[in-house]
Amino acid sequence: MTAKAREPFVFNSRLHLNELTGVKATTLPELVQCLRTVNSASIYRHTHHFIEQHQYLAPEPTNDFAYWVSESLGDDSLGEQLAGIDVLAQPTISSIRKVLIGTIDRALRTRPRLKALTAPEGEEFVFLKSVSFVFPTPYRAADLVEFAECLRKVSLSSIYFHMFEAKLRLERPTNDFSYWLMDSLGERQLALRIAQLDPYSQSGETIRSSLLKILETRIKEAKEK
Amino acid sequence: MSKLDEYEPIVGKAVIEELRLLAGHLSGKTIQHVNSTSVGGGVAEILNRMVPLLKELGMETRWDVIKGGEQFFHITKKIHNALHGSNEEITSDTWDIFWSTNEKNSLELPCISDIVLIHDPQPIGLIVQKGSRQNKWAWRCHVDISYAQTPVWEILRSYINRYDASVFSAPSFSKSLAIRQFMISPSIDPLSDKNKDLPQSSVEGVLKEYKIKNDKPIITQISRFDRLKDPLGVIEAYRQVKRYIDCQLILAGGTASDDPESAEVLSEVKQRAADDPDIHVLLMPHNEIHVNALQRASAVIVQKSLREGFGLTVTEALWKGKPVVASAVGGVPLQIKNKYTGLLCHSVEGAAFAIKQILQSPDYAQRLGENGREHIRQNFLLTRHLKEYLLLFLSLYYPDEVVRL
Q1: Residue closest to B66 by CA, chosen among B30, B96, B100, B113
Q2: Is any Cβ of chain B less than 8 angstroms from the Cβ of A34?
Q3: In this complex, how many residue pairs, one in chain A and one in chain B, have their CB atoms less than 8 Å apart?
């Protein structure tokens, strides 16, 4: 029998609606200019939607900016640098924004010919933003066994919400799962292991499997004690 | 079994559960769709499938169609063409007829539901009713207006800005507006005759009906015979491929009765195909099962359009797990992420090169096809469309970027 939590974990889900911002870029200098001014919902959208929309791809392209620079501007080198940005290490959306701008600015300074690259007509970078609707699901867990059971059933949107969005858009200190495991169950090691998972380099179902594997190991240990 | 439950094996239980949860937050709201035709065309096709599902989710939903005579629809066709970028002269007298027909409809068709969704320009003038009511109005544009003629667009824009929100199918289709603009892509219904699974025997039966032997790889483009679909470019690309790989080409589609050019284009295509027995030019009656079978029989599906709306033929092909080569126009880049879910091209040579790559690399072709099908499953099926309509309805009541329900 595993310990009961002080507070149950309520699984929320969130669904996105794309809003058009009217902001477009055809060159890298324009892209940087837009990156400085677009709102954070737009930065979130373009650094996370590719993962969610292409959750079956492994390895996945990591963000829309990397894909656009490689595919529409044809610069694989900068595309690779942008793809390699460690989004997980960024605590807030504004720090993601800063890293993106810094990476492109550096490339423009060291390789000025990049300034002349232009996207073909129809392949401009169009800034969108994600409007998020967060709502509770019927799934709630009071201990590790129930938590694992719910994780098997909830949607990937729910997993993404608790793993990415809670931390970045709602600016919580860590992902929701780790926070609850530590705060309500005192499962410090387990919380840390989950916080160390890199959800940006796995497909959606792989994240679910990784979470379940870590949980099942801990449940087995707890039962054996 | 409810209609919605039939989608569960395809999209998963959690997706259906979330639709029901979301709909619960719209409980008691009434919805009204208004467009200009109940049969034919993509809008009617989607509404025919969408309205019953909205009802099943507990929303009282009605679908009304405006009335207009031959003269009115002649004008709306001109407006449609102008929005697509054609030079159309629309005089002030013509506009008078357009607006007076809208006014007449407005008197006969009270838009009193909580949420009114007006589809395309034909009924756009119904917005005049909004002033006296407290309900929410959204204008749903199904047309690619990225090349719209300015004078026509400016007249429509003054009406669109009176709505609470607008909806476009792809980012590039939008324009500067004073109201919120959302992006909701169209979708295909995986349970329709055009998209449902078919046994191999049916596929072979259809090939036999068209006297096509399945003895060499088939390259297919399904499109009406229209210059913007570039059928002659497809023949040229096929000929470049044929020099290295023995293959055959199917160009299949109908001619539109409202498009006088289509017969001319068909004749040019037949002439260009000349006496090559491996080019099959099929003028098909409307037959969804036949389209389905021809797509499933193909080794590669092409959509080499010069201009495209959303490109639902691409969606259909990807859903069938087929490798697709398509021009990077309209809504196609939303569906094909180059080298992940298909191959994009910008020219005849590019199309030929991509087709060769696919025909010569079966493993690569299979991977593109599998990724493509998954991409459609998760992003371009009717259930996603339904979800986004529900979110649109909610967004009319919540202006925030993060909404807690």
Answers
A1: B100
A2: no
A3: 111
Question: If pLDDT is split at 50, 70 and 90, which confidence band does A205 have?
Answer: confident
The predicted pLDDT at position B45 comes to: 82
pLDDT in tens, A94-105: 999 999 999 999
Percent of chain A's residues with pLDDT above 90: 61
| Interface check A20 vs B, CB under 8 A | yes
- Give the CA-trace dihedral at B328, B330, B331, B333, to 10 degrees: 20
CATH fold, domain B4-187+382-395, is: Rossmann fold (3.40.50)
What is this model's ipTM? 0.85
Is residue B306 within 8 angstroms of chain A, CB to CB? no
Question: At residue A58, does pLDDT exceed 50?
Answer: no
The pLDDT value given to residue B355: 98
Q: Minimal Cα distance from B307: which residue of A?
A: A122
Domain residue spans in chain B? 4-187+382-395, 200-379
Helices in B283-381 by DSSP H: which ranges?
288-297, 312-319, 332-335, 348-360, 362-379
Contact residues, B window 264-283, toward A, CB-based 8 Å cutoff? none
Contact B371 A57 (CB under 8 A): yes
Residue B64, pLDDT score: 96
Neighbours of B37 (CB within 10 A): 16
Which pLDDT value is given to residue A74? 94
Report how far residue A168's alpha carbon sits from residue A40's, in angstroms, rounded to the nearest whole number.
10
Q: Give pLDDT < 50 ranges for chain B.
A: none
CA end-to-end span of chain A: 10
- Give the whole-angstrom CA distance, residue B13 versus residue A138: 14
Q: How many CA atoms lie within 13 A of A117 on its CB side?
A: 25
Q: What's the pTM value of the predicted model, to 2 decimals?
A: 0.88
Contact (Cβ atoms closer than 8 angstroms) between residue B164 and residue B359: no
Q: What is the pLDDT of residues B328-370, one digit of tens each?
A: 888 898 899 889 999 999 999 999 999 999 999 999 999 999 9
CB within 8 Å of chain B, chain A residues 128-167:
128-135, 137, 153-158
pLDDT tops 80 at residue A78: yes
Strand residue runs (E) in B164-226 = 165-168, 180-183, 218-222
For residues A91 and A95, give the distance between their C-alpha atoms in angstroms, rounded to a whole number.
Answer: 7
Structure tokens at B109: 């068709």
Same CATH fold assignment for domains B4-187+382-395 and B200-379:
yes
Fold of B200-379: Rossmann fold (3.40.50)
Residue type for position A84 = G
Name which of B172, B338, B375 is nearest A122 (Cβ-Cβ).
B172
Per-window interface: A 100-129 vs B, CB < 8 A: 120, 122-124, 126, 128-129
CA of B178: which chain A residue's CA is closest?
A: A22
In which band, very low, low, confident or very high, does the pLDDT at A1 lie, cut at 50, 70 and 90?
A: low
Å between B309 CA and nearest CA of chain A: 12
Q: Which residues of B touch A11 (CB under 8 A)?
A: none
Tokens representing residue B203 in the block: 């596929």
Q: Which of residues 75-94 of A touch B (CB under 8 A)?
A: none
